[in-house]
Amino acid sequence: MAVRVLIVDDDKNINKLLKLYLEKAGYETECVFDGRAALTAFGRFEPALVLLDIMLPNIDGWDVCAEIRKLSDVPIIMLTARGETVDKIRGLELGADDYVTKPFDSKELLARVKAVLRRKQAPDEDEIVRYDNLSVNITRYETKVNDRLIEMPPRELELLYYLMSNPNRAFTRDQLLDGVWGMDFEGDARTVDVHIKRLRDKLNGLSEHWNIQTVWRVGYRFEMKA
Amino acid sequence: MAVRVLIVDDDKNINKLLKLYLEKAGYETECVFDGRAALTAFGRFEPALVLLDIMLPNIDGWDVCAEIRKLSDVPIIMLTARGETVDKIRGLELGADDYVTKPFDSKELLARVKAVLRRKQAPDEDEIVRYDNLSVNITRYETKVNDRLIEMPPRELELLYYLMSNPNRAFTRDQLLDGVWGMDFEGDARTVDVHIKRLRDKLNGLSEHWNIQTVWRVGYRFEMKA
DNA sequence: GACGCGTGTTCACAATTTGTTCACATTTGT
DNA sequence: ACAAATGTGAACAAATTGTGAACACGCGTC
Predict the structure, then answer these.
(1) Are B43 and B147 in contact (CB under 8 A)?
(2) What is the predicted pLDDT for the residue at A155?
(3) Residue A43, Cβ density class (10 Å: 0-12 exposed, 13-18 middle, ≥19 buried)
């Protein structure tokens, strides 16, 4: 499944050239020649990247850019003719990601395309649960107490994260197995106990304000003490 | 992705003022106060423009200009005190691009900066990730440690770049395959391991402040040690 | 087209870490 | 006190990663 690129340029030669370059580089392309067509094609084709000329019939590039931005944060590279005054501020406000001046060579263009695609997949924020002096970062797989790293195996960390994500809630062993180990775990429920013990060994006495509590005949819970 | 400007002036007030103006205008700046510092900063900071005072401790502006010209054709604007005799011929020979007489006002300065960048066809900035003594330039496909080139194949470089672009984040092998190899990679996830090993072989022991860490049952991450 | 060369990928096996189970001790509730 | 549930340490099993070498592939050269 190749990455799809929508090419919007009223100059048919440039359009063709772009198509050639990109398809040779393994991208899937669709070409349109005016602003209105760009918008309808955008909805249908769902490109991962848009190459957008500024000077267009119907609706100009800026407006197309703005419309697309209302729908999606797909990367957009604006195409400008040499000599055309490029108002980069305006482009920035409208959400363009890069500019390429015509005429361009294939190498530079492809480099820009790759760069923009790379830049856009900015991974999201870390997922962290905290309470008091304890924080568990499931994105980095780091546990900290008072900003000191507490080393632990992934499963323990996941278990702690799971408990902390619903503080004070009592989880049965089966719930924990389902939530942390996955539905398909076939083993002994006592496995949970061992992991709990190891967590306790690591976290024991590090705070007065929380602990991992046993709930008899039920399971365990992460207790927050007011 | 701001344009980087290196400011070289021994007068701390002027330096500060320039920094203020430029950063307000969206440039990224670095300030140094003598010629020697200018040259080392130039290598590390890789500015898109240099503002260079002529009267400097250590190495004077002309010589700094000449040294920089041996390395790069980055635009250089010379700063001269009013009344200072400006040997424009000499400047021309050395490759300076413009002169600004102190004191200057912000508007004029910014106009000159923009003009010079435009004239130089402002080659778009490289995309670089750095940490401590390590930098990876994905535009040039160059990796440096302490400004020394570390040769490595493109895939390894891309992998390193990807890891470094989110330091400390644990990536699963699948995430790395998607991000570096592309969604359409059909091969074995263990491929990542081999590239990691080769990276480690190359980077091993080059710094105490970072390394590539295994996150068990998860994947790998580029660890920055505070 | 044949040939090397540098890369990228896969594979097999070793090394390591983690996950699980077990047996027995201890605690809890009735 | 008794049965059931949980705590605990150690042994064991399984999964994961490290590693060297072989293989495959594209690319430019001859």
Answers:
(1) yes
(2) 93
(3) exposed
Residue A88, chain B, CB below 8 Å: the answer is no
Query: Which residue has tokens 């957009």?
Result: A76
Nearest to A153 among B179, B184, B216 (CB): B216
Rounded to 5 degrees, what are φ and ψ at A49?
-160, 145
In the structure, how far is the CA atom of residue A174 from the C1' atom of nucleotide C16, in angstroms? 30
Cα separation of A61 and A53, whole Å?
A: 6
Structure tokens at B217: 């049952």
- What residues does A136 pair with on adjacent strands? A129, A143
Residue B127 is nearest to which of A3, A115, A121, comparing CB atoms? A115
pLDDT confidence of residue A89 = 45
Q: Is the CB of A191 under 7 A from strand C?
A: yes
- Per-residue model confidence as pLDDT tens digits over B111-167: 778 777 765 554 456 788 999 999 999 888 999 999 899 999 999 999 999 999 989
List CB contacts (< 8 A) between A155 and chain B. Answer: 217
Partner-chain contact B184 A118, CB within 8 Å: no
Paired residues of A99 in beta bridges: A78
Burial B44-78 (b: 16+ CB within 10 A, else e): ebbbbbbbbbbebeebebbebbeebeeeeebbbbb
Q: For tokens 């644990």, what's the residue? A: B170
Residue with the larger pLDDT of the pair B201 and B12: B201
> Dihedrals φ, ψ of A5, to 5°?
-125, 130
Distance A128 CA to C24 C1' (A): 39
* Domains, in order of start, for chain A: 4-120 (3.40.50.2300), 128-224 (1.10.10.10)
- Segment B73-84 shows an average pLDDT of 76
Ranges of chain A with pLDDT below 50: 83, 85-86, 88-89
pLDDT of residue A130: 93
Mean per-residue pLDDT, B58-63: 86
B184 at the A interface (CB within 8 A)? Answer: yes
What confidence tens digit (pLDDT) does each residue in A154-203 have? Answer: 999 999 999 999 899 999 999 999 999 988 888 888 999 999 999 999 99
Q: A100 with A77: CB under 8 angstroms?
A: yes
Nucleotides of strand D lying closer than 7 angstroms to a protein CB: 5-10, 15-21
Residues of A in contact with B215 (CB under 8 A): 141, 154
Whether nucleic acid strand C comes within 7 Å of the CB of A174, the answer is: no
**Tell me, what's the pLDDT at B85?**
56
Residue B15: how many other CB atoms lie within 10 Å: 19
Q: What percent of chain B has pLDDT over 70?
A: 88
